[in-house]
Amino acid sequence: MAAYREATPDQAELLDALVAAGHLIPSGVPGVYGRGSDFEKVRLGLDGHVTRVATAAGETPETLRFPPVLPRRQLEDLGYLESFPHLAGTVFAFEGTEAQARAQAERAGGHEDWTEHQCMTDLVLMPAVCYPVYPAVARRGTLPAGGVTIDPGGSYAFRHEPSGDPARLQMFHMRELVRIAEPETVQAWRDGWRDRALELLRGLGLDADFDVASDPFFGRSGRMMAASQREQALKFEILVQIAGPEPTAVASFNYHQDHFSGLYGITTADGQPAHTACLGFGHERIVIALLKTHGLDVSTWPPEVCDALWGVAA
Amino acid sequence: MAAYREATPDQAELLDALVAAGHLIPSGVPGVYGRGSDFEKVRLGLDGHVTRVATAAGETPETLRFPPVLPRRQLEDLGYLESFPHLAGTVFAFEGTEAQARAQAERAGGHEDWTEHQCMTDLVLMPAVCYPVYPAVARRGTLPAGGVTIDPGGSYAFRHEPSGDPARLQMFHMRELVRIAEPETVQAWRDGWRDRALELLRGLGLDADFDVASDPFFGRSGRMMAASQREQALKFEILVQIAGPEPTAVASFNYHQDHFSGLYGITTADGQPAHTACLGFGHERIVIALLKTHGLDVSTWPPEVCDALWGVAA
């Protein structure tokens, strides 16, 4: 089994309160929950708020949407398994005969191991909402002048990190925006959104700060990759204290330089390698931070928060 | 590999046209596509239309939402692997050491087999949007008088059936509604929705008909299960001719009798075993049927269709 992270006492208390209030519905597996109607209302309100803030900032991103599975070959080419082997989820399926199907069903019905009947398919679970954007943009050929901004929406991502912390889910919504353009354009966009997102989250009443950050690279060699990422300030996060010993990252801003454009061959209008950056708002983490900050009864939330989320009172 | 269903010439032509118009974005894996902005606008309009039709019919379902993974133990208990072993997707992940991670990344980078490094997790992909509803309702104890109606939304389901038919996806949105109540209440609800859904789809200009149907049970013994299901008229489908030799099911209506309530122990207010039924609208199939019927340029669609989907012109 993957290293299960036990909840701290305050994380366990928060999870119990969220379940008791009907915001989260336990599935029996840590980090996998259903969502009640108020939770979903806040989540969709937040997503709409991000869209409105983007529009007000003059952004006109193109909407594209992708399902929560990615071709396995793309994961292999991305080098994801070098950096995050512990977080990847792969899709297996049955390919056998009727007799094998009966044997599999019998073992599964008795809750015995039925691994041997499952084969790796050509799909994996989506590790990050922006991953399918880059090959989709690359298919179109050279970028238009000024590059593109893509809105892949608030879509599901999977990370195999079972935890008792209600703010650390295995399957969660990440609302991303992706910028693909000349290097200086992309950097300015990333820095602009870092400031805009901080204002957005503080405007919802969250005690948010930002910091230089690094990805959770695997193992000892991963520590060097993390140090290099920090040194180059390629990743920023916005942090809010939710529960546990440390603040939780609720949004992140990643500058990939030419990593993705090099892999997929994306070039700018004047024939240079494009750079890319993305930002992501962690839907469920922000909703939980709002519930912790403003109370579990959404109908009592401050009018300015309701107005930002829904344009009206809860 | 799973039996790949080749596209018929008209299915291949439709897929090419949908891709050329930007409605579907190929991932490289059959049955897995991104969606363009107009496709998504129609899909969300359809989802809203179903909600409005439900409201107009006096339905007041409770909103619950679930991520597209299910506890493996629930799949095992459901007997899904007896009926549909060929459609299930299971989630595997890495559990090894740093040396094993390096070996895995090397094999994956060379597109060699890295199966041996992956272990079965306690999650599977969601086979049907209604499956997590039943244990969630069971947790609450005895049903209120009159039972409950749950709206699990237009959420993702996975079926491992790679195909060249653009109307047969591996990961797709199924908009469900679930009724849990006394047997006669549930049957009347299912029959009412069968007629209402036919009217809804015909109102969008689709040449839709309904028929008694059966699930795609696996193997020879599955043919007997299918015959029994038909004989008891437990499943209806609404069919539309999209492409290929036979019409495509775009909605289904399933009466489970006491199957789920027995598994999870759901009882009515007067202490009897509840019955359950669900209906599902296949989002992507209906959007593709609309694009085929009204044309690939959504801005030219008939005003009455636009009005139903968005309340205004496209």
SSE layout and pairing:
2 copies of one chain form a homodimer.
Chain A: H1 9-20, E1 24-26, E2 33-35, H2 37-56, E3 62-63, E4 69-71, H3 72-78, H4 80-83, E5 89-94, H5 98-109, E6 118-125, H6 133-138, E7 148-158, E8 171-181, H7 183-203, E9 208-212, H8 219-231, E10 235-240, E11 248-257, H9 259-264, E12 275-282, H10 283-294, H11 303-310
Parallel strand pairs in A: 3-7
Antiparallel strand pairs in A: 1-2, 4-6, 5-6, 7-8, 8-12, 9-10, 10-11, 11-12
Helix pairs in contact in A: 2-10
Summarize, please.
Two copies of one chain form a homodimer. Chain A has eleven helices and twelve strands.
General description of the model:
Two copies of one chain form a homodimer. By secondary structure, the first copy, chain A, is of the alpha+beta class. Chain A has eleven helices and twelve strands. In chain A, strands 3-7-8-12-11-10-9 form a seven-stranded mixed β-sheet. In chain A, strands 4-6-5 form a three-stranded antiparallel β-sheet. In chain A, strand 10 and strand 11 form a beta hairpin. In chain A, helix 2 (37-56) crosses helix 10 (283-294). Chains A and B meet through strand 2, helix 2, strand 3, strand 4 and helix 3 of A and strand 2, strand 3, strand 4, helix 3 and strand 5 of B.
